[in-house]
User: What shape does this take?
Amino acid sequence: PRLAAMRVGLLLDAGRGAEAAGEASELERQGGEALVALGAVHAARGDWPGAIAVLERAVAADPDDLEASFRLATALERGGRSGEAIEQFGRILEAVPDFAPALNYLGYLWIERGERVDEALAMVDRAVRIDPDNGAYVDSLGWGFFRLGRFAEAVAALERAARLLPEDATVRYHLGDALLATGARDRAARAYREATRLGGPDGEAAARKLAELEDRP
Assistant: This one.
């Protein structure tokens, strides 16, 4: 099913929508893993409504399918339906309390929203304990420390995240903010400069922070 789903994506990229629709319909009839694979194709294309529609069918058919449930939760969040995403993550964690991807994703989501940050920090800490070398989880932990004003702990965690994910602009951007909060201006500038080099939305945000920093006396 995954190869067939990839073919649907390639057909869409080639502008062959009618063929793609026909093959997608066949995958939908198969259900199960085929639906999850098709949802992943929609997600990779940024088609969040399409991903949500397919993944909702997959979860309805098999509520115990952890991959389908997690992909649905992330698609809901990326599609701007954060409230429903939080509910879906909650259902996942009720069923599997130590499912690290959901602990990290929901924890980071709350940290970003500035809600239940203490609880969110505990969640990402659990994720890190389960998978200590996962750079994304360590970044979430550091960002939670930062949001709680625990800047020295934030720097320590984010420096480790940067070692684990040396090409991740978000980690460098977070590290720059944490370093700046401790007064380490030169080190913050280096982190922002590295994030800028790596690009993406957080790289652009880092470039603005760097310009502001360099304009200060």
Notes: The mean pLDDT is 87. The chain has two domains: 1-96, 98-217. Residues 89 and 102 are 6 Å apart (CA to CA).
